[in-house]
Request: fold
Amino acid sequence: MKLFFFIISFFSTGISYCQINVFDSTRENLPVPCVVENAMPLINDAYHNGQAGEKAKVAEVDCSRAYYCLQTRQYATTDNQVNKLKKFNASSIWLTENTEQNGVIDTNYQRIQFHIEKVMRSQTDSNTYIIVGKSKVKNNICRFTGTIKLLSFFYTNCEDISNTKCGELFGRYIFYEDSSQQHSGVFQGIMDCMVLLDNDKMKIVLDESLDGADGYWNRTYVGTWKSYHSQQAKKCIWGDYRLPFTVGFDCGDGEMMICDKYVKNGWQSFNDQTEYKEISPGRWTLKNKWWLSK
Reply:
């Protein structure tokens, strides 16, 4: 199998990253799963690189293929069960409800925030979902619409829950911001999340059983944003908590904490938690529900 990436190794630290070449993450022929033998001695985990420091620089813009290959290597001998999901409804797993998702855009790790407010299952393809939401960079808020097409699903081991199975779900996403708005463009790449299959209700729900654990991640989007105006593509990665392929960005131990170098790029209130208010003992909510204002 020919893989369209190569490995760049930095210094004597052993830190290496895939540089993507000739990959469009919307293509239909993405290997399921990928086999990346040459990469494995060099890249072990897409997430455990945040504290690697500035000796290694991430040169690639689109990490989506590398991410997919790394996350699916454990399923190399496992059948893709995505077609079994056609009888389940996954609409709820991407909704952000009264919160937001955080991420980075460009190599300076500028903060970008997302809110997904509506998800509808396609009437023509039961494994495609129509997504409606908003993005925010600094004070610029853009509406977007697009799709997530389920790509692969692999069962994983989980707690014995009656009539429920769990697994890892991957999809291709493409979200189009409103071209009439300033600084708008297109997000596209690979989405990854841990889910539970409720056989009684025939629903797929988000598996948040490890929420709060060290290194927790979920609903991760890895790809690019491309400006309508300049056609320039920028790295864009977001999700729930820890983010992959973000060297020197996350200096936290038990929880995500942005390194001093990048705090000025929109992360101060995230680090000091001043963007939250306590509404009752032990219950906190965002002060600024920015997605309601435009």
